[in-house]
């Protein structure tokens, strides 16, 4: 099997091994993790309908909203409309939208970011890529009590900072630290997504569909691809060996010892 040491076969073997290793150790496990995350999210949403809301202070006490994501909470306090920001370039129900983010000061003094829901952009010739911000209802004044679900801060897009467009502070990610820094006030990590029919809500944000998704199938496919790549390499090697065994010997190869 010296032919395996030739450059072409060495390159093919290395490519097959690297691809199979990636399938077994990176691509397949990555999809398995996404499947597990989707299952955990679905379970958390289902659980949120069975467990009554609790004061947001008890959920955010540890400063880790990711551990309680989708948990229903109550907030009592007042909105801070001057610190408001809009999340731009969003999509809700498959159509462009802005999400309205209004900090909310609790009666205890801490500030929590509240996602009041979405509004549709106004399209005209002068509007930018994200469209023009429409007129929308301001939050109610004075003390109110609202109910929503805890969400973790978004990470993608937070490095793009804050812009001012049409007199509105706008961000690319729903991130409490980014909104708080722009407004000059400290905001607790995470945010609360308002439920429908709550004081200050606009277009209520829909909950994710409770479905498993394709990630488990993708994970199994990547494992199958890794096995197929190795099996294909073995078949190529066997075919090469068969062809070499069936090939006629070079002329004169069996007459080196004959004498006249």
Q: Quote the average pLDDT.
A: 85
Instruction: Please state how the strands of the largest beta sheet are arranged side by side.
Output: 2-4-5-9-6
Helix content: 25-40%
Structural class: alpha/beta
Strand content: 15-25%
In N-to-C order, the SSE pattern is HEHEEEEEEEHEH
Distance between the termini: 36 Å
Q: Number of helical segments?
A: 4
Q: How large, in whole angstroms, is the Cα Rg?
A: 30 Å
Query: Biggest sheet, in brief?
Result: 5 strands, mixed, barrel
Structure in words:
- With about 260 residues, the chain is α/β, with parallel strands linked by helices.
- The chain is built from four helices and nine strands; from the N terminus they run H-E-H-E-E-E-E-E-E-E-H-E-H.
- It has helices at about 5-50, 55-60, 175-185, 215-245, and strands spanning about 55, 70-80, 85-90, 95-105, 110-120, 145-150, 160-165, 170, 190-195.
- It has a five-stranded mixed β-barrel.
- Strand 4 (about 95-105) and strand 5 (about 110-120) form a beta hairpin.
- Helix 1 packs antiparallel against helix 4 (about 215-245).
- The radius of gyration is 30 Å and the shape is elongated.
- The two termini are about 35 Å apart.
- The model has no long low-confidence stretch (mean pLDDT about 85).
